[in-house]
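step: validate -> pass
step: tokenize input -> pass
step: predict -> running
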Amino acid sequence: MGVSVREYARRRGVSHTAVRKAVQTGRIPQEADGTIDPVKADATWDAQTDPARRAATPPPPTSIPTPKPSSSPSLSRKTVPPLPATSGATFAQARTAHEVAKAQKARIQVDRLKDEVVDRTRATALVFKLARQERDSWITWPARVAGQMAAEIGIDPHVMQTLLEAHVHAHLDELAAIEPNFR
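step: predict -> pass
step: emit ->
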């Protein structure tokens, strides 16, 4: 036999609004006639409540007689299995994962404040800029030194510059094949 929302809230020691909210979110079942079976509701309420908050909930008043469980073992408080979590994780596991994520976020924020974290986009742009400057320096190098080198060994400066440019470009092509990996 079911009881009204207000009666169940009084027995449970919570507000009727909390019970209505629990019914709306599916934490506790409601009978077809709109009443609540206290045995079923207590079992699902306990199974789906945060253990830290469960201890803060006062026990139902002892002066009010509670209905005796029916003879059916499936409705007994001890034998009703808790409802499975929709995501496959228990509340404690979800809470632990949440706390770990918060701790990691806090650690990253502290590292940023200490300037120990490097922004990946900024680092990639800086590496690209430095590589481009080095490449431009190597491309202009044969034109700067070809005349001096040609004079030292006694050959035509144009031939020397052409040879140096060919070798420098080949070397730069090899270096361009290297991809930086920041992971």
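step: describe -> The two ends are 62 Å apart (CA to CA).
step: cleanup -> pass
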